[in-house]
Design goal:
By secondary structure, the chain is of the alpha+beta class. The chain has 7 helices and 16 strands. It has 2 domains: about 10-125, 2-Layer Sandwich (D-amino Acid Aminotransferase, Chain A, domain 1), CATH 3.30.470; about 135-290, D-amino Acid Aminotransferase, subunit A, domain 2 (D-amino Acid Aminotransferase, Chain A, domain 2), CATH 3.20.10. The strands form 2 sheets. Strands 8, 9, 10, 11, 12, 13, 14, 15 and 16 form a 9-stranded mixed beta sheet that branches. Strands 1, 2, 3, 4, 5, 6 and 7 form a 7-stranded antiparallel beta sheet that branches. A hairpin with a 3-residue loop joins strand 14 and strand 15 (about 260-265). Acts on leucine, isoleucine and valine.
């Protein structure tokens, strides 16, 4: 059965300090964020009723706002509390959380002077970003024609809504061509990330991952790197050229939504889900309480 659209669901959304009925959580069409992408957001996972790395996500949300030039009118502790209240009010045991902060409709124009900052937190049941069977056989990815921008041309260290236009275009084209997603290069032509997840490669037992100098250093990315080092795997952050994919035996994506998902194909290159990926999936599942 097709799930209902996101504007027509039962439940409660935390909006500017209060839980309101889901369908009443609305903004005006002349909201600054809709026209000028002045919004930042987070993606968070709920496991057994608890939000994984909640404070880290709330801190990043606040920092993303600062990068875009605004302060949230709530502290990190208040955002944490509001998130927990929203999860509890909706009875979410395993699901997803989406906090978003944006500039309001007080001013219409590029300059955001005088706009009010809003914050909403929604949560819903969402068991898997990719179909579960792909955790065993791996994703088919292509290379995107779009590149991640130079850090001097965009606020690349913010989880900002406007930066996801490139990811949307990349994933839409990949799915139309029969792939699950695509890998974007960075502005210099090196490997960067997928449309909404970080990339890892296993080369002779060593974990390699692109330096996040023009894309988001994911919270799940850092978690997986810590798990890998705890197991004794060497982790190398560096610029990786596309042709180096030929030297990788395993590949996987990481992210709040993707968690750890093996990759079987990137363009002309093939990989097999192997022991390093399997070990890290097991460790991640144990960490979040899935096993």
């Amino acid at each position: 059965m097709t799930p209902p659209p996101f504007d027509d669901r039962d439940g409660l959304i935390w909006l500017d300090g209060a839980l309101v009925p889901w369908r009443d959580a609305r903004v005006h069409v002349l909201t600054h964020a809709l026209h000028y992408a002045s919004a930042v957001f987070e993606g968070e996972r709920v496991y057994k009723g608890q939000v994984f790395k909640l404070t880290e996500h709330s801190e990043r949300l606040a920092q993303s706002g600062r990068i875009l030039g605004f302060e949230l009118p709530w502290t990190v502790a208040e955002i944490d509390a509001a998130t927990r209240a929203t999860v509890a009010a909706n009875g979410i045991e395993d699901g997803y959380v989406r906090p978003i902060a944006w500039r309001g409709a007080e001013q219409m124009g590029v300059a955001p002077t005088g706009t009010k900052i809003h914050l909403a937190i929604a949560t819903w049941v969402w068991p898997s970003y990719f179909p579960p069977e792909l955790r065993s056989k791996g994703l088919r990815l292509t290379l995107s024609p779009w590149k991640r921008p130079h850090p001097e041309t965009a606020p690349t260290q913010a989880k900002a809504a406007g930066l996801y236009m490139i990811g949307t275009l990349s994933k839409q084209a990949a799915e139309a061509a029969g792939y699950s997603d695509s890998i974007l290069l960075d502005w210099s032509g090196a490997l960067a990330e997928a449309s909404g997840a970080n990339l890892f490669l296993v080369m002779d037992g060593v974990l390699h991952t692109p330096v996040p100098d023009c894309f988001l250093d994911g919270i799940t990315r850092r978690t997986v790197m810590a798990l890998a080092r705890a197991r004794g795997f060497k982790v190398v952050e560096r610029k990786i050229q596309p042709e180096e994919l030929a030297a990788a035996q395993e590949a996987f994506l990481t992210g709040t939504a993707a968690e750890i998902t093996p990759v079987a194909e990137i363009g002309a290159y093939r990989f097999a889900p192997g022991p390093v990926t399997a070990a890290l999936i097991a460790d991640y599942d144990a960490l979040v309480g899935r096993t």
